[in-house]
Design brief:
Elements: E1 17-18, H1 23-34, E2 41-50, E3 60-64, E4 69-71, H2 76-92, E5 96-101, E6 113-121, E7 126-130, H3 134-145, E8 149-153, H4 157-160, E9 169-171, H5 178-181, E10 190-193, H6 198-208, E11 215-218, H7 222-238, E12 249-250, H8 262-278, H9 288-316
Parallel strand pairs: 1-4, 7-8, 7-10, 8-9, 10-11, 11-12
Antiparallel strand pairs: 2-3, 2-6, 3-4, 5-6
Helix pairs in contact: 3-8, 6-7
C-alpha cells in the first residue's frame, strides 16, 4: 500500500509547494516520475473552461505521493477540489474528471466554469537482466519495446557493447556484487537471471530471494531448477533461516510457446512478464469459433423461419383448397 498525502490542505504542511512553477518545470517533474527518479504522482490538467476562470487551458498541477505540489490549476476552492481528486487517484490509480461551476459549486467569485482531468503517473517498470549473452541480447530490445526500462549487468564489458543494448542501461558487475549493483531494488522491479553458468545463476538466485522484487526469474531446464533451488533451500534451512517467499519466483522462465531460439525465448519471457504485470493468464484471445458459431446459428434460424413461412403459404393457397 502506497502512502498518500492526508486529506486537508497541503500547503504549509512541511512539503514544498511550487505553485509558481512553469510548464517546463512541470514537464521536467513528469519526466522524473516516468523515468523512476521518484515515486508515483497524480497530474491534473485544465481541459475546459468557460467565462471567467482562474487558469488557462492546459494549465497543470502535479501532486507527488510525498505531498509535494508542482504547478497550479488556479488556487482557492477549485484547487482544493482538484487536490482531493489527486489524492484519490494516488490511492486507486483511477483517472478522474472534475466539472465545476465556480460560483454554484465552489462559491468562488470568478463566475465561470472549469473542467479538470486527473490521471495517475507511474514510473516506468524496471527489468534487470543478469547476464549479457545471447538470450539477454534478444530479450533486452523486446522488453524495451514492451515498455520496460531495461538494465543489463555482466562483468564481461565487451558483451555490454553489443548493439542490442543501445539505449539500455548497462553496468559491469558480477553476481557477487549485486548488493552494490542494485542498492535500490524494490517491490516494483522485475529481475531475470541469464548468466553464463549454473553456479552464477545459483548465487544470484540465492541472493535475490531475500531482496524485494515484483518478479524474479531464472532461465534453465526443469532439471536445473530442481537442482539449484533444492541446494539453496537446503542451505537456507541448515542456516536456520525462515522459508523464503517464492510466490513471485519463476523458473524456468517464460510461457510455454514452444520456441527454442534466443528470439523465441525472449518473446516467451516478455509474454510472462506482461502477464504478471497486468494480471493476464497467457491464454488465447481468439473468438473466431465463437463468432462463426453465432453466425451459423443465425443462418440456421433464418432458414428455419423461411421454411416455416413457405409451408404456411402452401397450406393456405387457393390451389391447395
Amino acid at each position: 500500500m502506497h502512502d498518500v498525502p492526508p486529506d486537508g490542505p497541503l500547503p504549509g504542511g512541511g512539503k514544498p509547494l511550487r505553485g509558481g512553477a512553469g510548464a517546463l518545470d512541470v514537464a521536467r517533474e513528469v519526466v522524473t516520475v516516468l523515468e523512476g527518479g521518484r515515486g508515483r504522482a497524480a497530474m491534473a490538467t485544465v481541459v475546459g473552461r468557460k467565462g471567467s476562470a482562474p487558469q488557462i487551458l492546459g494549465a497543470r498541477l502535479l501532486l507527488h505521493e510525498d505531498g509535494e505540489i508542482v504547478g497550479t490549476v488556479g488556487g482557492g476552492a477549485i484547487e482544493a477540489e482538484v487536490l482531493a481528486a489527486c489524492r484519490s487517484t494516488l490511492r486507486d490509480g483511477k483517472p478522474r474528471r472534475i466539472d465545476a461551476q465556480l460560483v454554484r459549486d465552489l462559491a468562488m467569485c470568478c463566475g465561470g466554469s472549469m473542467e479538470v482531468f486527473v490521471e495517475s503517473l507511474e514510473p516506468q517498470v524496471r527489468l534487470v537482466i543478469l547476464g549479457a549473452g545471447h538470450v539477454a541480447q534478444a530479450l533486452a530490445p523486446v522488453a524495451q519495446a514492451a515498455g520496460f526500462s531495461v538494465q543489463v549487468l555482466d562483468d564481461r564489458e565487451e558483451l555490454l557493447e553489443n548493439p542490442a543494448y543501445a539505449g539500455v542501461r548497462t553496468a559491469s558487475y558480477d553476481v557477487d556484487e549485486l548488493r552494490a549493483a542494485l542498492p535500490d531494488l524494490d517491490e516494483r522491479d522485475y529481475v531475470v537471471i541469464t548468466t553464463r553458468d549454473h553456479a552464477r545463476d545459483e548465487r544470484a538466485l540465492a541472493h535475490l530471494l531475500r531482496r524485494p522484487h515484483r518478479y524474479l526469474g531464472m532461465i534453465g531446464s526443469r532439471r536445473k531448477v530442481h537442482a539449484v533451488l533444492g541446494r539453496i533451500l537446503r542451505r537456507e534451512h541448515q542456516l536456520g533461516r525462515p522459508w523464503p517467499d517464492l510466490s513471485r519466483v519463476r523458473a524456468p522462465i517464460g510461457l510455454a510457446l514452444g520456441g527454442r531460439t534466443p528470439g523465441e525465448i525472449a518473446v516467451s519471457v516478455v509474454a510472462e512478464l506482461l502477464a504478471e504485470r497486468y494480471g493476464g493468464q497467457g491464454s488465447r484471445m481468439s473468438v473466431v469459433e465463437e463468432a462463426a458459431g453465432r453466425i451459423e446459428r443465425e443462418l440456421e434460424a433464418q432458414a428455419q423461419a423461411r421454411d416455416g413461412s413457405e409451408g404456411d403459404d402452401v397450406t393456405t393457397s387457393p390451389e391447395a383448397e
